[in-house]
UniProtKB/TrEMBL annotation, chains A, B, C, D, E, F:
Source superkingdom: Bacteria
Phylogenetic lineage: Bacteria, Pseudomonadati, Pseudomonadota, Alphaproteobacteria, Hyphomicrobiales
Name by which UniProt lists this protein: 4-carboxymuconolactone decarboxylase
Carboxymuconolactone decarboxylase-like domain: residues covered: 40-125
Annotated signal peptide: none
Molecular function via GO: peroxiredoxin activity
Transmembrane region(s): none
UniProt cross-references to SUPFAM superfamilies, sorted A to Z: AhpD-like (SSF69118)
A Pfam family that the UniProt record links to this protein: CMD
Length: 133, 133, 133, 133, 133, 133
């Protein structure tokens, strides 16, 4: 639980930018860039609140945080692009493919078989893209 | 990742009963008992599929499985009794109160502040009941 | 499929009132009455559109319509009072208790085990109240 | 209600495979095949639990089960591929196109007009593909 | 609040057709047309109930009604085509692009950041199409 | 659109506290207080992000912001306590009861009649409590 982003001197925005880079990598950068013309302030909020505030908190490791996020997004089932970003993020912070598959299978119990299926097919795409790259 | 429930000789139902007892404890037993008159077959399915099949799988530890379940139920926001059962289950399998609180706070990002608030108030109730007992 | 509510001479409101009485019985009447002071126009819409228009249509029997409604409300999981009204309605239009239980069990597959559990406990309450009455 | 899949000698997996073939046909086979590389165990669960256990139960006919499934998936609105598979399945087990359209129209009442619209457009696609084949 | 559609002599269908044309413009017309072969009665309901009844009511202006609709559709997150139609409708009834962006940003608080992101990207598409036309 | 909370000298937390007091009044204060023992940091986030950041933004008035929030919470249907707080907040920032009722009626179109009914019954409770006080 020491992988968080402490640095007394930096702003929420700076800390968020660092956290986003480590967690979401290129995919996170693209989301922020895509907001530049429509809602630049919201790009700032994305960096500051989820990344500068929440993912930077102590008390839960990044691996555990990505387990929670993947589970929630697969269960909700209405945020396909974000689910893919966080399957990628899960790999970035050290989750094994097998672990991600287990999380998604488990969602069949809490959100139904279609939610699990759609999550698994999202993971299949992300894993394939990563194999190519 | 050795806390799962392997035992070549037992049935899915027996393994599920063991897993339910360890994970959900008394709360899980009550759910199964409450189904006895209305849908006894469904009580069997609850033991067999989520517990006998899914929670008994290798590849993801019980702590991680409860992180995923708490996150999913808090995000969905329409299964308050089950969320409480699994906050209790999280404690049973070794999650610290602080970790459960972190998971629920994080849901503000993915399912909105009301989902996080309602999850935190559910945790508050479970923690208080546990302090009494 | 002849149980619908054809009557060339009556208005949507009159037909809806007849349909509501047959399908939802006393429970439907209470919902309409409870709207009288806060939103009387919405009470009229409830009678006219779901009951005067939709349930009065040909092409699908009332039994089948209540199967669809019970399944949808149990799957959505955020409309507990309406689910109870329609479990009652299902009984009113000829569904057996066993059939209603089967619909609710099946929702475990499409909306998760918590949705099925909460649906079954709603049915348990409705069946018990009906036994008393 | 005699269309279920009794056969004392067969396993849940075998019964599920038979049920899937009859209900979902080619579309169901494709889903199972698509899981082969990412999560073969989940393909087994899909066959065993929804099909080997639930759809094989007595107490509710396959026509009624597909009414419930189409209604639930259209109401949830976050499982478009599965809704199409089950519109097809509804036709396979004897629902008329008109009946499926009625179920989807009715969802406007319980899940809103967008859910009904998206369900109807899914049905339009499935019916068109079937006309071509 | 005088932009509603009073005309004592016209039917709900006629009033709905007028309201749809003013609010949703071409996009609304396309939806109604697309229903012609699959569910023509539902096209009539779309005109009569949401437009002939609800949007024609007094007590809340069209600008305010579109704020409510855009917020609800972005929060639900499972009706992408309808969200785009109503972002367009918002512009048609006088909402500024900036106001629509603010509504969507605000949804991060109540339905999570992915819902807000997907809403903003839908707005980006609608604004771009409008710039081209 | 001048009712926002500009004050160059104050922190996000201070501005959020001011905004919460004006918008949610006593109900908002109670939510923050209830978090003190379980998740005091989340109380800070509630003040800083929704209130210090979002509701303090220009570009959309508080009346319009509460229309959006009431619509979203009624449509989601899984955050009953927060819906009541924001029906109260809507009154606080100048929405008429009639306007709130109209927003909730309109949700029947986008989220179904049960969502509208449950929203209207929440408003009935809030209006009654306010009449007593």
């Amino acid at each position: 639980m020491t992988q968080q982003f402490p640095n007394a001197g930096e702003s929420r925005l700076e800390r968020g930018r660092r956290a986003l880079a480590e967690i979401d990598g290129e995919a996170g950068h693209k989301v922020v860039a895509a907001l530049a013309d429509i809602a630049p302030d919201f790009a700032t909020y994305v960096l500051e609140f989820p990344f500068g505030d929440i993912y930077s908190r102590q008390g839960l490791g990044l691996r555990e945080r990505e387990i929670a996020t993947i589970a929630a997004l697969a269960a909700l089932g209405n945020a396909a692009p974000q689910l893919k970003v966080h399957i990628e993020a899960g790999l970035n912070v050290g989750l094994a493919r097998e672990e991600i598959v287990e999380i998604l299978i488990q969602m069949a119990v809490y959100a139904g078989f279609p939610a699990a299926l759609n999550g698994l097919f999202a993971a299949k795409e992300v894993f394939a893209q990563r194999a190519e790259a």
